[in-house]
Design goal:
This protein has 552 residues and is of the alpha+beta class. It is 41% helix and 12% strand. The protein has 19 helices and ten strands. α18 packs antiparallel against α19.
């Protein structure tokens, strides 16, 4: 009897345990269980164990369509947050362009600004390196903030939006301080693409000048970013959600670019020249903001992969190195300018800055003059000089004026552990292939102001360019790369084929969705790109002939 009772008791205990486990499975929230993926989740489309599908997400031969749906609550939260950062929508003035973007802004270049202000070009160029902070620029030029605002062609009484011109802080009129910039908040949205749906995707606006000016001009199309697992802690069933292998994507609103091509083409040109750069694609972005009107076309955007996501996974041997997004005075690499604030990390945030400091030390070492061979060896041990020179030569064709050599921003540095070198990655190309902007450039002052000879570069302000070009070995390699890019990458016939094919796709889409009236500005802007390619070819040829004559 005793043994039988013990057997029954044991069975009862097992049954009780099973019942308790069943109860726990029913009552406990999903975060305490093995999560079940939502309906429609597939390994290829949503999972994180597949390579990024570039052919599908970032194609060259079509315009993708993406549909983003807000709830009324998430839309209201994002709008309220933007008002807190930048003030009310439409508080500034601007000139809208195609697709909700903007036409060019007529701002003086550094040469004109120097004449206008009675300062040297070197002084103005150095001051503009601090453009993320208008007050710092004014202080560097010994100007009242109102004088600077007027000289930059900004509206009278203009109060700089937070982060005007870049990251950092600025000051308003009368010495009032604008709060330090911060990113807008993330809000959840759903995303629809090619019949698939992604739930609880993180959405936030992004950018500095493009965002602040677009918001001030009450533009519909603002630049934004999507993060497909931003809210995974709140929704465990969506853990490690991906968009065909991509965790994040940026969407540029093609600010200042009526051709809608510059962001995409410039990145493609850099990669074709052997420079690491993001892959991109055209997207028609449709948004339902929850107000009952359904999906509305915001415009043609350029989708861009992020350097600290898939770019380093696919264009480098490893993806574990330090990633920096430099900006501000330290990012000039001028002697003594280093600050940690100028080199914010996008990865390994707890690591030190030894790799960047090693570059500063090698760049400014006295062996540059006393033993150039040793200087080059030490510099190349910590910095990928070849790919920097490739960027430098290519950028003389691309003419991205708001970049290093004019402004200390719009590039990443990646510490490639395979080579032990910091590698230059250009970024943000909406102002490429343009003769406007604040930087030195052709037009009113002639080609020499954006020369292949780099004669306008002040080596003390921009030593990564100036010191390398002063070295005969690097100068000769730079000239070889100018010749290579002129023949193999940015030749007029190559660029004509690219521009015309892109224009065909863009024009066909806009005509279908907005009517024929949308096409005139698009055609004129494409023609300007063709003219720029021809002008750059002629300038490169003149430069190469000049150095050949000097050698003779």
């Amino acid at each position: 009897m005793t043994n039988n009772r013990r057997g029954l008791s044991a069975k009862a205990s097992v049954l009780a345990l099973l019942a308790w486990l069943l109860l726990v499975a029913i009552v406990l929230p999903s975060s305490a269980q093995t999560t079940e993926r939502p309906l429609g989740w597939t390994e290829d489309s949503h999972a994180n164990r597949v390579p990024a599908n570039y052919d599908l997400v970032l194609p060259d031969d079509r315009i993708n369509e993406i549909y983003i749906r807000f709830t009324p609550e998430s839309w209201a939260a994002e709008e309220a947050d933007m008002v807190e950062i930048y003030g009310e929508r439409g508080s500034g003035s601007g000139r809208p362009g195609r697709g909700g973007g903007f036409g060019p802004r007529n701002r003086p270049n550094a040469v004109d600004l120097a004449v206008q202000l009675g300062r040297s070009q070197a002084q103005v160029s150095a001051a503009l390196a601090y453009l993320p902070d208008l007050a710092a620029v004014a202080e560097a030029l010994a100007l009242d903030i109102d004088e600077l605002i007027s000289a930059l062609g900004l509206p009278e009484g203009f109060v700089p939006p937070v982060g005007f011109g870049g990251s950092g802080s600025g000051s308003g009129r009368g010495g009032g301080t604008v709060p330090s910039i911060r990113n807008p908040i993330w809000v959840p949205v759903s995303v629809e693409f090619r019949g698939q749906t992604w739930q609880q995707v993180g959405f936030r606006y992004k950018g500095n000048t493009a965002l602040s000016w677009s918001w001030a001009d009450n533009a519909t199309a603002l630049p934004f970013k999507l993060d497909f697992d931003e809210f995974e802690d709140d929704f465990p069933a969506l853990q490690n959600q991906r968009f065909y292998g991509f965790k994040q994507l940026g969407f540029s609103n093609n600010f200042g670019d009526p051709s809608l091509q510059r962001e995409k083409v410039a990145a493609d040109v850099f990669r074709a020249a052997g420079v690491p750069a993001a892959q991109t694609a055209f997207y028609a972005v449709y948004v339902d903001n929850g107000n009952g009107d359904g999906f509305q076309l915001w415009g043609i955007y350029t989708a861009v992969e992020l350097p600290d996501d898939t770019l380093i996974e696919t264009q480098f041997a490893d993806d574990d190195g330090n990633m920096y997004k430099p900006s501000g005075g330290g990012a000039t690499f001028a002697a003594g300018s280093f600050t940690e604030e100028s080199f914010p990390k996008r990865s390994n945030r707890e690591s030190d800055f030894g790799d960047v400091l090693a570059l500063f030390e090698a760049l400014h070492d006295e062996t540059r003059v006393s033993d150039p061979g040793a200087w080059r060896d030490n510099l190349e041990a910590v910095f990928d000089v070849e790919r920097f020179l490739r960027w430098l030569a290519t950028n003389r064709f691309v003419q991205k004026r708001d970049s290093y050599g004019t402004m200390a921003k719009d590039f990443y540095l990646y510490a490639d552990s395979a080579s032990g070198q910091l590698v230059w990655i250009p970024w943000d190309h909406n102002e490429a292939m343009d003769d406007g902007g604040l930087g030195p450039g052709p037009g009113q002052n002639g080609e020499s102001n954006w020369s292949f000879s780099l004669e306008e570069i002040n080596a003390d302000v921009w030593p990564l360019i100036g010191f390398l070009i002063e070295d005969p070995v690097y100068a000769a390699r730079y000239a070889e790369l100018v010749h290579e890019v002129s023949r193999q990458v940015f030749a007029p016939e190559i660029m004509t084929a690219i521009y015309e094919e892109n224009h065909r796709m863009l024009a066909a889409y806009l005509e279908e969705h907005e009517g024929a009236d949308a096409l005139a500005e698009l055609r004129a802007a494409a023609d300007a790109l063709l003219a720029q390619a021809q002008e750059r070819a002629e300038a490169a040829q003149a430069y190469l002939l000049s150095i050949s004559s000097d050698a003779d």
